[in-house]
Amino acid sequence: MTVRVPAKVNLQLGVGPLREDGYHDLVNVFHAVSLFDEVTAADAARLEVSVQAAPYSRVAVGGVPADGDNLAARAAGLVAARLGVEPRVSLRIRKAIPVAGGMAGGSADAAAALVACARLWDDRDDPVLTREDLMEMGAEIGSDVPFAVLGGTAVGVGRGEQLTSALTRGTFHWVFATADGGLSTPAVYAECDRLRETRGEPAPRPSVSEELMTALATGDAKALGAALTNDLQEAALSLRPSLERVLDAGRDFGAVGALVSGSGPTCAFLAETEEDAAGIADGLDGAGVAAQVLRASGPVPGATLV
Questions:
Q1: Which of 171, 236, 241, 267 is surrounded by the fewest CB atoms within 10 Å?
Q2: Can you give the residue ranges of the GHMP kinase N-terminal domain (predicted)?
Q3: Is 8 one of the annotated active-site residues of the chain?
C-alpha cells in the first residue's frame, strides 16, 4: 500500500498564550501544496522503517530516524493497537518534503502511515476506521498530522488539531527556498515566548484573519499575499538572521507574499501567476540565497492511496 502525502505551508499562524499542558493556543490556517512524500506499507516479520530521498529530490534524510522513533512507526503502532493486530509492517518512506523545514514532513509521513496501515490491516468491505478516526489518532502523534490526512486548506484551532475546511477557489502558485540545516520547532516557540517576555508583551488571543479568508474564497493571490502572517517568524529570524535576506530576495523578484513557513527555516513565496513563480524561482536560484528552490501549487488533497 503506497500513500502520497503533501507538505503544508501556514498561511496564518497565530500563537497565543502558553497553556498548562505545554502547548500554545493557535490559529493555524493550513494549505497543502504539491511537494509529496510517499510511504509504502507492506507485511513484514516485524516493524521496519527505511528512509530515502525521492529520486527527483535532494532532500537530506541523514537525520531522519529509521526506527521506532520515526513518527510513521508510531502511527503504525496506533493503527495496530486500534485494530488488535501486531504492528508487523515494513514502512518505506521516500521523501521530497524538506526535513525540519517547517513544512511538516514528519507529520506528513505519520499521516501517510495511518492511511496505509489502515488499508493494509482493516476490513476493506466493512472498515472499522474512518478518515475521521485516523485524524483523531493523528492528533495523538502531533498537531500537524490531522491536516496531512485531510489536505486542502483548513483552519486549525486548539493546538492546531481541531480542523475546519476553508473555502478556497482557484490554484495558488508557490516557491519555497530551503536552508542548510533545520530549526527546532520547540526552540522557535521558546524564542517567541522569550521575545514577548523581554518586551513585556502579553501573548495575544489569536483569531482568524477575515482578509485571509476572503482572499482564499475569491482566489485573489495579491490579497492573499498581503494577508499572510506568522507569529513565529520573528523568532525564526532571531535564531537564523540570514533568513531576512532570503525573504527580501523573494520580494525583490516579484513575490506578492513572503513569510517563513511554520517554524522555519524554509521561506515561502506566493506568486500571482505560474509564470511569475518560474521567474521568482529562477531569481532565487541565481542569487544563491537558498540551499534549494522548489516550486509547488495548492491546495492539493491530503494523504491519498496511489
A1: 241
A2: 70-152
A3: yes
